[in-house]
Amino acid sequence: MSKKKKDALAWGIILIVIGFFFLMANINVDIWDILARLWPVILIIWGGWKLYFGLTERKEETSKK
Question: Residue 35: which pLDDT band, with cuts at 50, 70 and 90?
Fold first, then answer.
């Protein structure tokens, strides 16, 4: 995946998350209380995402050689 596509994907995810926070605030859901309880899950998902894409890139580099 090229750098440009990764940047577009990252910005897309960031905008979705920000929009989700504003949506939850508008429908009176206390998102910060939920986030305060579930922040370790966010770290686990982020770590899994980084691990998956790191292994995928390593496999691609190995297959190119």
Answer: confident
